[in-house]
Amino acid sequence: MDDCLMSTESLTRTASTPARRPTSAIVTPSYAPDFERCRLLCETLDHFVTGFDKHYLLVEQRDVSLFRALESPRRVVISERDLLPRWLVPIDDPLSGFKRRLWLSPFTMPLRGWHVQQLRRMAIAMASTEDVLVYCDSDVVFLKPFDCAAFHRDDKVRLYRNKDALLKPQIADQRAWSDNAARVLGIPVEPISNDDYITTVIAWRRATMVALCEHLEKVSGRNWVAAAGTRRKFSECMIYGRFVDDVLAGQDHFHDDREFCHVKWFGDPMSDEQLADFVATMAPEQVAIGMQSFIGTDLGRIRRLTGLV
Q1: Which region, left, alpha or beta, applies to residue 307 given φ > 0 means left and ψ of -120 to 50 means alpha?
Q2: What phi-psi label fits residue 33: left (phi over 0), alpha (psi between -120 and 50 degrees) or beta?
Q3: What is the pLDDT of residues 111-134, one digit of tens each?
Q4: How many CA atoms lie within 13 A of 21 on its CB side?
């Protein structure tokens, strides 16, 4: 009888104990030409963002020493050498006059920097311990307070999903990215998925990404990097989203179609007035802007928006 009472009391204490807060890490892939933009991201992130335990900067080995200047007690620079197989080798591309980088291997298509940044984003799941990985590109700037707790609800992690978005006008590659995600996951392309999983300032469940990479290796019989890199048109966001929805049936996730970052993907450099107009069109839930670096908008103009000049 006493043993039963002790067991009941123990269960009561356990039931009343608050659930452990999931740990979170912000993940930012970057490279030397975006260093100053990454610095501004770090400044605004430290000023406006709460609820994260680590910030990982993922860079090519030759950029590590440059990005070390941004390290702090919570911010760590990680070389791709510590994330990706050594057989994936970066070189200066002779076809670009040695101005661009190319990653070569016997097991993948020739890959560009934006491909390899995606692979780094996937690989950090195997090298980190945090429960939730929040992905934030280096050309993002936070303008409002934001708590990373928005990415988890009880034991589930938020999955950005824009239902039927691919039925609307889109960039040409987006349909290919979705179809290729199905192929690499070993699931039927038909019926086609019209859902979009691509945005910036999104989160993945770390354990799910580890399971995804294991799934890729099981399906392909190869290293997951080799499996993902068999086609040049791939999106890590599409692969993750379709894995969660089409393989795991949404397990451990909840869906949300709100975008926390207001992004300008294409266009010409913006003036102060145009930037102000762009910020004025932010939705109430949006806390950051993303200004693609190749657009060429002056970084000083963007910095003035933050109030951290």
Answers
A1: left
A2: alpha
A3: 999 999 999 999 999 999 999 999
A4: 11
At 2, phi and psi to the nearest 5? Answer: -60, -40
SS3 content of the chain, % helix, strand, coil (to 5): 45, 20, 35
Omega cis (within 30) before 191: yes
Q: Quote the pTM value.
A: 0.90
Does residue 253 sit in helix, strand or coil? strand
Q: In whole angstroms, what is the distance from residue 237 CA to residue 201 CA?
A: 11
- Report yes or no: 21 and 129 within 8 Å, Cβ to Cβ: no
pLDDT digits (tens, 9 = 90+) for 284-309: 999 999 887 767 678 888 888 888 76
Q: Residue 72's pLDDT band (boundaries 50, 70, 90)?
A: very high
Residue with tokens 């990415």: 151
Q: Alpha helix locations (H) across the chain? A: 2-16, 35-48, 64-67, 113-127, 173-185, 206-220, 224-228, 236-242, 272-280, 299-306
* 3 state SS of 295: helix
Q: Confirm if 139 and 34 have CB atoms less than 8 A apart.
A: yes
Cα gap 191→15, rounded to integer Å: 44
How close are the terminal C-alpha atoms of the chain, in Å? 69
Q: Give me 1's structure tokens.
A: 């009888």
Q: What 8-state DSSP symbol labels residue 258?
A: -
Tell me how crowded residue 255 is: count the other CB atoms within 10 A of its CB. Answer: 17
Output the six-digit token pair for 267: 């266009």
Owner of token pair 């020739």: 110
d(CA 249, CA 271) in angstroms, rounded, equals 45
Q: Is 84 helix (H, G, I), strand (E, B) or coil?
A: coil
Q: CB–CB of 91/104 below 8 Å? A: yes
